[in-house]
Give the backbone structure.
Amino acid sequence: MRYSREHKAETHARIVKNASVRLREHGAHGVGVADLMKDAGLTHGGFYAHFDSREALVVEAFAYAMDRSTERWRKKAEQTPPDKRFASIVESYLTPLHRDDPGHGCAIPALAAEIARESPKTRKAFAAKLEEMIEMLADQIPDVPRKTARKQAIASLAGMMGAMVLARVAGTGEFSGEILTAGREAVLDRVSASKPGGKKARKGVPKQAPTA
Amino acid sequence: MRYSREHKAETHARIVKNASVRLREHGAHGVGVADLMKDAGLTHGGFYAHFDSREALVVEAFAYAMDRSTERWRKKAEQTPPDKRFASIVESYLTPLHRDDPGHGCAIPALAAEIARESPKTRKAFAAKLEEMIEMLADQIPDVPRKTARKQAIASLAGMMGAMVLARVAGTGEFSGEILTAGREAVLDRVSASKPGGKKARKGVPKQAPTA
DNA sequence: TGTACATCAGTGAACGCGCGTTCACTGATGTAC
DNA sequence: TGTACATCAGTGAACGCGCGTTCACTGATGTAC
């Protein structure tokens, strides 16, 4: 072979990693094969030595992005006291930083709507990663039955990714910030309220009379 | 002119209306100009007598879809007692029927993520329609200060459209239904809990020990 | 009222372009002897 | 250890195709006289 034993695997991984950023930035159909290969320092002709089709790369790149998110949050949780794990994930998710850097952020707000329209195979691959992420999130909600934790994880993820999509549509101004704040408070409030002793109002998120 | 006075306006409206369905079904880039004109019973060459560009049609079709949703919900609310208006919207939104017919459903889960990546002009046009929809939703949340209602409307819409996107990614099976249910319960629960006398658990949505 | 002309929504061929994919070729390296 | 050959990741030209857009043309109708 032209290159050393692990060279191909490294190149493959580099293509996938770079593609996962570009696809989150520009959408599942927003970047061409030639550009994706250029990102990895290659020419487009060699693409099919690594992937059966463009769609196959899309699937791998999504899986990579989802795995990275799930793993990052799991590690973040490990370094946080159990009762603050979930809140720390939500708070780092619904930020202007995340909103303004989709390429390095969660793949769900960036790509899920498009994926839902792809082939069943692609869609199912994404759904499996979604399921993993939900389970990981449920692990971070202590002191409630597992079924409740899972429901909370699903609803929270929906609220988080939904707020992120809306915030990106709204741009970077006041309206966009308002969406991030409303989403963050609602998710944190709901989950803390579901705990046995957690019905007291959270800081800045009174249930009846807002101070702000 | 070849056609009677109002003929052009009618044709224009027909193109926009049909396009709003096709674009929600297949995405903002998922249908070509030729197909969109064919839907209206025309050939592609005449397109530019009606629109400056394909993107101009996309903007009009989105505005049309958003206006229809906002108006439909407003009317639905008028025929419902004030304290049940919001719940009736949420319940009709997070259904398998809506999930399985994106072409006639809410434009936000279908298209918002793509719109966020379009030109500032297109994005802002969508953001303005989003703002209108949020205001309409806030109108349906009684008995709380306006600021609270608006926050609830934003967070609820994020949860609703997010759950719809996730449910569509999950397909039509059990997992997908679980997402719709979790989203519905979370949104209804959160809003009813924000009311002065509304802290009691909702039917089937116990806060600590689920029955199902 | 009747007639000639101007209008312009709609037609269908054509344009240029970018895309995903294919393919003959290259050449540095691993392997066989 | 040294040499000839086989391998195959990567190159770059080419392919076919569909897309958004342009354009010369059509012909039924509104309008001017």
Residues 54-194 of chain B form a domain with the Tetracycline Repressor; domain 2 fold (CATH 1.10.357.10).
